[in-house]
Batch of 2 targets.
Target 1
Amino acid sequence: MSKKWVYFFGNGKAEGKGTDKELLGGKGAGLAEMTNISIPVPPGFTITTEACVEYYSNNQQYPEGLTTQMIEAMGKLETAVGKNFGDIACPLLVSVRSGARVSMPGMMDTVLNLGLNDETVKGLASSSGNERFAYDSYRRFIQMFGDVVLGVGHGKFERLLTDMKRAKNVDEDTKLDAADLKKLVDQYKDVVSTETGRNFPQEPKEQLKLAVNAVFESWNNQRAKTYRKINKIPHEWGTGVNVQAMVFGNMGDDCGTGVAFTRNPSTGDKEFFGEFLINAQGEDVVAGIRTPNPIIELKTVMPEAFAQLEKVYQTLEKHYKDVQDIEFTIEKNKLYMLQTRSGKRTAKAAVKIAYDMFREGLIDKRTAVLRVAPQQVDQLLHPMIDPKSSYDAVAKGLPASPGAAVGKAVFTAEEAESWAQRGEAVILVRKETSPEDIGGMHAAQGILTATGGMTSHAAVVARGMGKCCVAGCGSINIDEKGRKFTVGGHLIKEGDFITINGTTGEVILGQVELIEPSLSGEFAEILTWADEFRTLGVRANADTPHDAQVARDFGAEGIGLCRTEHMFFDGDRIDAVREMILAYDVDGRKKALEKVKPYQREDFEGLFKVMEGLPVTIRLLDPPLHEFIPHTDEDVEKVSKASGIAFDRLKRKAQELHEFNPMLGHRGCRLAVTFPEIYEMQAYAIFEAACKLKKEGVNVIPEVMIPLVGHYKELEELKELVDNVAAEVMEKTGVKVDYLVGTMIELPRAALTADEIAAHAQFFSFGTNDLTQTALGISRDDAGKFLPQYVEKGIFKEDPFVSIDQSGVGQLVEMGVAKGRSVRKELKTGICGEHGGDPDSIAFCQKAGLNYVSCSPYRVPVARLAAAHAALKG
Amino acid sequence: MSKKWVYFFGNGKAEGKGTDKELLGGKGAGLAEMTNISIPVPPGFTITTEACVEYYSNNQQYPEGLTTQMIEAMGKLETAVGKNFGDIACPLLVSVRSGARVSMPGMMDTVLNLGLNDETVKGLASSSGNERFAYDSYRRFIQMFGDVVLGVGHGKFERLLTDMKRAKNVDEDTKLDAADLKKLVDQYKDVVSTETGRNFPQEPKEQLKLAVNAVFESWNNQRAKTYRKINKIPHEWGTGVNVQAMVFGNMGDDCGTGVAFTRNPSTGDKEFFGEFLINAQGEDVVAGIRTPNPIIELKTVMPEAFAQLEKVYQTLEKHYKDVQDIEFTIEKNKLYMLQTRSGKRTAKAAVKIAYDMFREGLIDKRTAVLRVAPQQVDQLLHPMIDPKSSYDAVAKGLPASPGAAVGKAVFTAEEAESWAQRGEAVILVRKETSPEDIGGMHAAQGILTATGGMTSHAAVVARGMGKCCVAGCGSINIDEKGRKFTVGGHLIKEGDFITINGTTGEVILGQVELIEPSLSGEFAEILTWADEFRTLGVRANADTPHDAQVARDFGAEGIGLCRTEHMFFDGDRIDAVREMILAYDVDGRKKALEKVKPYQREDFEGLFKVMEGLPVTIRLLDPPLHEFIPHTDEDVEKVSKASGIAFDRLKRKAQELHEFNPMLGHRGCRLAVTFPEIYEMQAYAIFEAACKLKKEGVNVIPEVMIPLVGHYKELEELKELVDNVAAEVMEKTGVKVDYLVGTMIELPRAALTADEIAAHAQFFSFGTNDLTQTALGISRDDAGKFLPQYVEKGIFKEDPFVSIDQSGVGQLVEMGVAKGRSVRKELKTGICGEHGGDPDSIAFCQKAGLNYVSCSPYRVPVARLAAAHAALKG
């Protein structure tokens, strides 16, 4: 017997259920579940995602048994509906929709009204008593089928529709009558013949087979692949296909169609939210072609249907205990549900909804925390327009995705991508966006569209990405070819700065000051709940008192990485640093370092004060010395003039210090093995600052970190140096400060010999940036020439500099922890690479048994939440 | 009870034995063993190396019990000799000599005639009836004790001796009479008082304690530390101290002293070899102050003593079954042995002696193979003067260490080091060398001295280092200050080229053509024996048919690494390569690659022919493309003119390809993941060549190697590419060629995920150069600024690019082998980094279970021998 590829639903009973998402896809599972809980759903059947996978591994052929099972299911469907597929008198029409495990809105293909042909259309007209409706459905079918299945560009059909509307002098297609639509059907069929060289397929069974194939194929269209890449969806999953009896929103003014959320997905407010169109089919709403009406108006227009909808809302939220994103059609005042799924929401909404649902008793605290995706809350930490700034908005659109953005206007997705690659901040300005624009939307700071509603493509996608978006801003006039738009009397050309505010819908000329967000309200509360669950500590990478303060405000429990070299560049001190580098001997270096010391001491004092009571991990000098010396003749000239150091001397030094592979050169603790006086100065600065503050009553907890250790003897030697300085300073000041000396584990050899190193280290901090560079042999600065292709090809699932390479670098981290603890049971371990703020990497850190992660200050809330997720899921 | 620190020997019985080298040091063990086998040895006692170690860990204080044990042993010694230490009438005098586990000639200190003072010297004079002898001994004692123990420079004493000789108008110190020597003793004592502020110590017990301390201290003098570093002797070992009753070679013309080898340590010939001086003490021979007489003359001068010596020779060789390096003193025609140890020998001698001793039945084949140190045979593979070249020698010295060298003359060890660091080949020219010169000798290509014999410092050290050396070349007149020497009518200034031939003793002006050596005679035979024992295969790294032929002649069993990029530079092909790099698209690249292919095919044909019947591992393109493009404006200009490619285009490409860390950049298989056409071309060239030759009856065994794999998917993709090309070419030519596709393991990630990789690899070749660079995070090209200090400080025992870092990189190799074999049991594994020719690394490879090592052609014999040692010792 062949495998079960097809699952039927209808008559209040479904073969599948809501938890079968992997098998049936999200849409299929939702339809099955709604059927089972007696929500009105047109009957139909779902072809499994396994069938799609099998289709691809089977050389794009149907798996054995699929055809038979489809025929059987169609028979059941005919019985359930009481109509026959292809019946000339009263035809059963079906929709064919994709549905993957997770929603990929607009990425894959759909065909409605399938089963129509030159004969059945007449039967539909007579059985419905509505000829206009029948031909409207047929022209829609030809267009969708033509576009999706036969590859005829939809522009060709739309042009004919526009021409017809112009000829009839109407502005909406609902104003076209049956005769117009009949004519249009003929024109459409001609287009298909001309473009494909064959007539539009008339046989409903053939139509079905072709449509199912097309849905399977659409899994691998370019935009779907791009979407999956961005959203880290495995290419192996495949899509389900849902074949469902049509209900018609386009039968007249007692019909309609809409999409809605059970709560506001933008703000999270507990309110009906959505849009509908009278006398329309579903695609009209999401395509952004006609601007739909707010759902609340439905109460007035079709009170009966609205009441049904209201009841369904409540049932669904209670059943799913989460916000639902639904699609419905009203056929002659009767409501049919076509889809329900967990609603995508902005981070702000996710927080609000989780918080509210916990307060409402719908979910527990643990679930509330898990409902807020760490990846997403980064949005809440994005810039906003400074409330103190004054500006005039030149236009107002829909507040489709919150946050604010400043950038140069560009008018195509390609330009957005190429400008962004050059490092320009851009705002993508489009009449409406389409799935092809996905790359450009990703590259832009924000998106501004002229048409489309809150559930238009631009709005949905932007919210998913956490990009700020202003949608449906009708007052702007876009000239895409001319690369400009006008609004009011203003002309904005490509490259002109604009600011958009996705929270209010405002569009502003020029650059408005943005401010950094802060934690407050429900978000702060949810993070507090997260803190109750997480076991990983969260620290921040911060080099200045200001950054440290931000981090502390965001809940950092210490500083995991203070890069002292950043202090070397500031103001006058760079001169002393250069003097040190140019010195001929130890005495010369020491003299110059003496000048740097007071600055360093001051910096450390500032940090210690802000972080009072919390540990501050200070990494001693790490970069190669040539980073402090100018290199080009021009720069050498400039520095020479400013500093009074002879050009030749500077130039010679730069040449002398030149390295072929600076990443693997004379840096980190190697500097101190050859020039111990550098770390000595830094140790003095640290302990002088610490002792002074301790004396003043400030609780300081310094942790001195030696970078780039590869051999325990390096650490042994330098720990002794630090300990000696500490002892001397404490002796001199008469103050005792508790401190630790530890090391970065950022070279494979350090991880491999972590047992030897742990004998001399009081803590390990995994420097996964360098560890990734060395373990993979990939220079981050040079990887641009091949790494994107590697990710594209799936050699790496993700950029290993963004999310830790668990099977390679991860082994080294695990090895480092295990070996380190084998020698020093209570060894404190953390991570301070940029992976420290990446949720997947944080989950890995939890698994690897680290004590803390350290990340940039603005990622601290993300890390707190991710750590809670890791603890709850682990 | 305290530990036993002191071991007595005398009266035909010793507390220690010959195998106690670790405890007693080499000298102490030799004295004990000789005593036990009834060879005449003056009695004495040995203070153990453990006492020295304890002394250092005990804050430079004697360990508990040592003083008591020394007093007891001295009592026994007095009984054995029948004289008392400090006795005014007939004093016992002793020598105090260092003796570490392994010989460190001239590195540590010795004091003779200890026990003399203003009173006992009179007793010695009267008891010996030889006043001259007594005062000669006393002045020697003051000088040695003053120098070694009290830190008065020996130059101060020597100056007084020279003045005295001048005043008396004699040229040898034996010509000074007792009165002269008495005066000299007074002058010497004055020098000590002036220099040290106290009188020369008169109390023999104090003298002894001070002398023992001084020997302990001499373990850590600078030259001893340098010597240990060069010879890889652990600093922790410590030295033994031998206190032994004096016998006197300076009592008259029936006395003497000498050093000898039981066979010729330079050629290995079975002949008496050594030197002696009449009426002298031991130090006179090795110091090179008086030029000694060949040992054979002793037969004439002191036939009785010579006969004793001959007997001892035979006894010792039979007992030790190895060449002995001995020191003896003749006191009134009676022979006393002062030392025996395994004789250092040149590689040539080691081979000859091992071969002869096997033939003589003294040792078995296994021992014969183990007697030849792999590190050393490299010497035999060093350049010789081309026998076809004609030249006139301007001088002839002693052929002290074989081989030939060409270099610029320099006159101090410091200059030798600094010139060598600049990349200059130098010959160190010295009147005589001293232990302080060790660094300069190491840096030089060869050493030329004006005085000193075959056992002088220069000769012994040079042989140990495998450096060519001409010693005792009396006809050259060196002006060290003026940095020049004259010989005949010629003036040779610093920087002038000279050639020396250590095999003949010739000194030649200018540069003589040198030739590479070949395997022959006993050496070839020993290597054949080695092959019987070894289990590791030995291959060579060779890129050209010529190198492959050299490798095959040296016994290579295949090519382990052919770097195809070397072929890219040759002749015209670089133009096509540049055209490929500059191409705008795939087609352009393919067109250019088509031009490169015929060259590559030819190269491979050449290699396959030479290596017929043996595997040839071809690594596909590895270096980043910018290596083929000029970089400086000057070079760009040149190439632009020559190639007709526009300057700007070349320049732009160079900038575009620039990398910050090329070592970690777009190279290796990454090139082929982005530009598959490159490897495709190479695969065609390989298989077209292989199939053509196979058709002609040549047995070809290609092994295609993919470099820099970090992720199995890279290999999976590229193996498929190679397999496809192979199949196509074989199909087309109708010839089947067996081949393998494998990978380099040269990134930590590759080793860490070797199980995944092995699923797609038919062999692994560990690229330990890159693996060391990445695991340690050290760029070999940039390491010069800190790695020497790391080795100096003992952070790394040895340069990890020379000898594999077993505890770090070694773990990755072991992991790679284990994980690889866990998936593919019969996985072939090898090493092709430069470590493949390093004996210690080869021993590691044996332990790690590799199948073969691959090294440069000239190292193949070294590797064969080292592999045999590894198998025999493992």
Note: The longest helix of chain B spans residues 586-610.
Target 2
Amino acid sequence: MKFVPASCIKLDDPLWSKQFDLVRNVVLPHMWEILNGRVENAEKSRCIENFKIAAGLSNAQYYGPVFGDSDLYKWLEAVSYCLALDNDPRLNDLCDQVIDLIEAAQQPDGYLNTYFTVVAPEKRWTNLMEGHELYCAGHLMEAAVAHYQATRKVKLLDVACRFADLIHSIFGTDKRRGYPGHPEIELALIRLYEVTCKERYLSLAGYFINERGVGKNIFEEERQQDGHAYIFPEMEHFKADYFQSHLPVREQLRVTGHAVRAMYLFSGMADFARLTNDPALIEACKRLYENTVSRQMYVTGGVGSACSGERFTVDFDLPSDSAYAESCASIGLMLFSSRMWLLDPRKSYYDVWEQVLHNNVLSGMGRDGKHFFYVNPLEVVPQTVSSNPMLSHVKTQRQKWFGVACCPPNLARILTSMCGYIYALDNDRLYILSHIGSSFEQGGLYVKLCHDGDTYTLMVDGGPTDVFLRLPENSELIGDQFGNPSNGYFSLHHAGGKRQYSYSLKPVIRLLRAHPSVSALTGKTCVQRGQTIYCVEGSDNEVPLSALRLPVDAVFTEEKADWLQEDLPILKTTGYSVSDLNWEKKLYDSQPCVYEPREITFIPYSHWGNRGENEMRVWLTEKQAKSNIQESE
Amino acid sequence: MKFVPASCIKLDDPLWSKQFDLVRNVVLPHMWEILNGRVENAEKSRCIENFKIAAGLSNAQYYGPVFGDSDLYKWLEAVSYCLALDNDPRLNDLCDQVIDLIEAAQQPDGYLNTYFTVVAPEKRWTNLMEGHELYCAGHLMEAAVAHYQATRKVKLLDVACRFADLIHSIFGTDKRRGYPGHPEIELALIRLYEVTCKERYLSLAGYFINERGVGKNIFEEERQQDGHAYIFPEMEHFKADYFQSHLPVREQLRVTGHAVRAMYLFSGMADFARLTNDPALIEACKRLYENTVSRQMYVTGGVGSACSGERFTVDFDLPSDSAYAESCASIGLMLFSSRMWLLDPRKSYYDVWEQVLHNNVLSGMGRDGKHFFYVNPLEVVPQTVSSNPMLSHVKTQRQKWFGVACCPPNLARILTSMCGYIYALDNDRLYILSHIGSSFEQGGLYVKLCHDGDTYTLMVDGGPTDVFLRLPENSELIGDQFGNPSNGYFSLHHAGGKRQYSYSLKPVIRLLRAHPSVSALTGKTCVQRGQTIYCVEGSDNEVPLSALRLPVDAVFTEEKADWLQEDLPILKTTGYSVSDLNWEKKLYDSQPCVYEPREITFIPYSHWGNRGENEMRVWLTEKQAKSNIQESE
């Protein structure tokens, strides 16, 4: 079972085509300007300049974080997904120039990292914990694979293979011990293996996975080396579990530490487990996935609760206002989820995949394509954010760019490649995992899925094949041509030839509650329509939003909002607000709450903060019994 | 109108005598050992040694924070309150030795600060923002006044006056500009003025108050001096409002910045406003008090929400789990409240005074007198505290000592001096502000208040005088001999001679809610009995406490608990817990909450954490409608 790669898929979907076009037409050109340091009032980036310095084409000073190269690689990966669908010659040329520059920055032995080449050549591979050399190498490989799949040009692939071969010659059993402080290369080497079929890339990925947390911790050894200096001084106090190297990966019971590192590592583990059919590793992946999504994930699909170290904390610790929920971490959870599905085609993996994509990921990018969230809180009171230093990581408005700029290019690559995870094929089976308007042709099979509102038309030409339609969570699927669903899939046998099938897919609106152990969410409820989580914003509702009450039996009406140019509606219901009439100069009192009926307007969480700074809240306090006007309790 | 000083009052109260005796018999001897660095596994203190070094009696190395001297002064102040009531010769001698040591450490010109004398003599007065010289001077003066009032010995008073005279010769109009980075000396100079009647101490206090925030900020000027170095590097980024020096004090509208500094400054302001009858300053005190207690105070009387900078944040920002609510800040709020009452005898100032004393202050010290809270959270889940770095300031158990050891000696001095704020007298009026069993004789008037449970007997001998009994918040006072209450006071005319009056005072149990704008407390309620806030602990209740629901119409029964050796009962009621039966492997779901009836046990917040580490929670989610067994919603 394999996914139909993004490079083969043409998107034609009211919501997702717009996102794709926004990335291609606005985000990527804008990022190019940023990477060249040509955008005013944005965090400074000298990414391209650093490559020129490393290539001997500039005498400027290196500027930027040690992992800066990955920004360009992620940009190139995203651009490649665009090229696959629409070979814009201007963009094609630009890629070729960039690839020439990258090749020029590669050292004769294949080494490629502008920071260590320019700033600290003698420190190569001496600080795997913080140096991000293997991390950047991984993003180079992913970009190379994407560019090759899009253009069939091999230049960048050759660059990546040369570097991969160098790394393979250095690290491994009977060679030097090592594994990355920031995983990424594991899954990247496997992508490289899948296009090149070179076994050594697979085995190197396996080495990094299997060596991790075994025997003496190599990061401890590094710290003890003479002349060791921290690149990130705060890391001095981080323990092995922060780097997921506290135990052999097969023995890890809970997800710990830096959220992006964890998601990337587990994604590589899932790939390797599938390709080697390793039961213990499969078991570990399932256990860690389970812990992530059923104990440590926000309802928006965000992961990593704590700002300090951008990390996972402990089961059920999911504060809304101080949430970190980094955009990159949720992208990592999408990668992990789709890979888990390949291991075990349970539909629930895609319930999470869609939950993450439709909410935390989509919220990461502003509607203008030029502003981004790194941190994705579930509750914001602007004056509190600006006054309480504990919330200094929270931004109430999307930012132009970041000193650590991992998120924007990561959003660009996932939004241009997510279609590469929605169809899966093997000899006689076609899985449609997410109902996104799109089409592809592969191995004599042509498939086209389009929808008009809730009405979907699936055209299949070729086959024969069994078609499995995944029932998305919180939706109703009705299709006479399909049998009864089994394990969350509707299926039919396509006998061959060209046929059209139709079905309707209706999102359901429901109220969600959290597990009773989630301390921050006791007594609270949130609104979900299909996979979309909704929130309230100050612009639509009386503030303070904390005074709003949502009745347990709320009935919602759907409306179109002009500012929200999506096929997503806003929702309205009659709820209540607690009157502050008798609270003048009081902070605590025994007086009964007086509830006033009030229309409450909900918008998709993914679109909050697009109308200026204001309050936002996902979880509202539930009002259990329906009340009469001015009811007191 | 003046308070009857603590030195004249004999406590005889089931709750407060025990606290007093615990401080005298356990806390103070224990602290003496600590100050001498003789306690194992406690944060190291070399306070006494530092004085010996400054006195030329030791060649050891200075050790400890720049404000370390204040620990000894606060200890000495507390010991003095004990001496006033019971002239223990051994303690008396120890004080005399300590005072000899302090005098020996004083420099010929009157200067007294071990850090600057030993470590940085050339830096005297060069860093008022961080140096704490004026702060330590203030605590010396308070100790000197207390010791003089207790023993009539003048040696320490002379030491304090010599230092005050030096400071007066340096700072002031037409002299050097200055004011303390950490207020305290203002209120201390006024205490010194009140025992010595030397006007210059009053006017120096006034200078520090009036100069603050006027013209160019002197802390800014200090930062710009050549050779300026930060003592606390983090302060580099703190703005003027952190030090309450952003505006002239009369123009400050909201309480800002470091909570202890603010409370001490405002206390001094209230004293100075009263003594000078300055309308603008009185107005400012009332405004800042109002903002503190009606917008930024925890229900436990804690103030200062944010760990970073131990500071106030913004109106209604009162998170329970990350609360800072430093013990010292709440002590400062008691000082501020009692001084506001002298300005304007409204009974509500004492509602706050008692709310703070009975809850945040009492919680600061463990029942063994050897463990203390610096931070007083309102909600603790131990595994979350240990895993989420954002909560690293929270301790789930009281600590032996602290690197910054301001709180334990401050608790000792307030618990031995609080009786000095409960009686106020002038020519023909006696105010009884807090109903604490005690007696005093002053100016031919003998007053004795005792109680047996809810029955109080007031004996007055002398007079004539009008007696005003304050009605405590959330209590019922019944007394036939008293007229109808007016403005919260019951009163009677004592015609003279010896007479006994009796009344009953019953605490009421009620549920409190917070202002609808308090985002962290939406939908929550807490239990208050009299002035005592209650909480639930894991030891008495099924965890997770987040699953508990408290019905709006809960009825409570009072019980005696063996472990709780106070005249405070524990409370029990029938509430609910949300079943987690159907939540296996689920984190979010639309299923209705299933409520199971459950007995909930509440204990006084002040006594949490005395039975080992476990969950604690003050605010429970309110269940609006009373439910039947297994009711679903």
Note: Chain B touches chain A through 70 residues (CB under 8 Å).
